[in-house]
Design a protein that fits this description.
Chain lengths: ~140, ~180
């Protein structure tokens, strides 16, 4: 799944996702990607977030919405991402999932849930400080 | 490390990031950037979890989910369980711009997409067919069924509901390229 968030120079924000979902799913099954506030959420007055992972579990917690509201309340993007992951972790300790967050000043962060075989989450960042997209990674909590 | 403009995306899908950035650099909107960035992954079938030819369901079909959100207006368009249309994020944007709805799903979403000029085509590829046939040969493991018979942990369906319901810990479905 790809989840993407974009911020323009003058403060416009958008978010998007696209996926073919889980392999061998029951026909008719929909994941979190198209659910607003789960797969992604954007609000130009606060920031944006996009999530990826086991959508059956993640959609129940609306992690992208939560992260944006935490940033609206002043949390830095990394902390907002970690809280969104921790909220799910409380109920599904080994869920597979990650999230990217950024606020309107261009600060960004990411978080992921440590589970067997998944201890680091990679994501891409492009801003004017580099002349090519930069691969970032975060250790899972 | 803060600067605008900014594009971030999940997973190391670099070409998608570059596609979105070039839209911003050429004066496009952030909506255009997100659409083009995600569409790049739909075309490139990023890690098999985006786009056609990946993640077949129990009947071997690939279906797509996508959404797009305008942070200025809070307008949203989304599609789920989209069949036969490759450009899911493009259809999601059409839902946002051509209806007052937010989410269209399944076969009807595909009919809407065709009416809006999106081309219907088979989303199955040799790769997804091979994934599906391997799964059938492996007694349909892994799968997402529970409280049905025959025992879904060792055999394929069709399944019927079991009379007794057992509460069991959720099976961990963590497959690196099988995610939302």
């Amino acid at each position: 799944t790809i989840g993407m968030i974009a911020f323009s120079q003058d403060g416009h924000v958008a978010a998007g996702t696209s996926t073919n979902g889980l392999m061998h799913k029951v026909p008719g099954r929909v994941g979190d990607s198209p659910i607003v506030g789960a797969g992604a959420y954007a609000d130009s007055s606060a920031g944006a977030a996009a999530a990826t992972g086991d959508g059956d579990v993640m959609m129940r917690f609306l992690p992208s919405y939560l992260a944006v509201e935490l940033m609206r309340a002043g949390a830095d993007p990394s902390a907002a991402c970690e809280t969104a992951i921790s909220r799910i972790k409380r109920h599904h300790s080994e869920f597979f999932g990650a999230i990217i967050c950024a606020n309107t000043t261009g600060h960004y962060g990411a978080a992921c849930n440590k589970s067997p075989g998944f201890s680091k989450f990679q994501y891409m960042v492009r801003d004017s400080k580099s002349d090519t997209p930069v691969l970032k990674s975060v250790d899972c909590i | 490390h803060a600067s605008l403009p900014l594009v971030i995306n999940t997973w190391p899908f670099k070409n998608a990031t570059a596609a979105a950035w070039s839209v911003l650099q050429s004066g496009g909107s952030v909506l255009d950037a997100v659409e083009k960035g995600c569409a790049r992954c739909e075309i490139e079938q990023c890690d098999g979890s985006v786009g056609y030819g990946g993640s077949p369901d129990e009947s071997g079909e690939t279906t797509l989910d996508a959404m797009i959100m305008n942070g200025d207006t809070m307008d949203v368009g989304a599609v789920a369980d989209l069949r036969r249309i490759k450009n899911a994020i493009g259809v999601a944007r059409a839902v946002m711009e051509r209806t007052d709805h937010t989410l269209l799903v399944g076969e009807s979403a595909s009919v809407f997409a065709e009416n809006m000029g999106f081309i219907a085509e088979d989303l199955t590829t040799n790769r997804s067919l091979n994934t599906f046939s391997q799964w059938l040969k492996g007694n349909c493991q892994p799968n997402y069924r529970k409280n049905v018979f025959p025992d879904p942990s060792i055999s394929c369906g069709p399944y019927k509901p079991r009379v007794t319901l057992q509460r069991r810990k959720r099976v961990r479905h963590m497959y690196r390229h099988s995610h939302d």
